[in-house]
Specification:
By secondary structure, the protein is mainly alpha-helical. 74% of the residues lie in helices and 0% in strands.
Amino acid sequence: GATDAARGAAALVLTAPGLSVIDKAIDEARRIFGRITSYTIYRVALTMDIMFLVVLSSIFLNFAPLTAMMIVLMSLLDDVPIMTIAYDNPPVSEKPIRWQMPSLLGVSLVLGLFSIVESFGLLMIGIRVLLHPELQEYFGLANENQLQTVMFLQLVAGGHLLLFVTRTERWFFLPPFPATPLFFAILLTQIVAVLMCGFGVLVPSIPWTLIGWVWAYNIAWMFVLGGVRLITERVAAYATARRAKGVHIVTQSLQPYVAS
């Protein structure tokens, strides 16, 4: 309701009566900040996982864990959940927030390292299974081509489950829960990936029991990564608080002590 001159001179123009629009704007800004943080952590951790898995297995095991087709399919399947991060319901901070790049990169790197352990660990288990006929029969893993499919499924499923871990600083099964678009995007891509692996569409087929073992492995690691995220966040928060306290001690005025 202000005049044109007032609107032109104002730094902020309210488009609705009352001050509630400011509160809503702050909440939405913090949600956007949370979505960007979630995406950053997820992207860094998943990129580390895929890159180091391929490099380490090629150098030390002389084995390509993924074919070129699998890499393309994995990229396409990852794009769907990533786009729906924009509609997620991240927790809204009660205090003003700002970029803490050392903490953000620290959490990303730690989750990335544990994701590498997760993927490389499954690869080593698969190689061990291939060396023992009794284990091959028990798990249903017959050859290296099927092992590549196992790694493809693990990266797709584990990568999307990682989204639940990176979207919140709390346990992933606590509210606020994922937004409907994000949840169903992950569910849909997982169904597509499982059907591709089970029926052998564009990838070598693997038994349904082996698909179940891969999923059980990923779910177990999901809880491990959730715990790692909590511990890393607490360590980072403690380091930040300790640094702030140290800066305050160094920069505080000496006038009261001089006067006394």
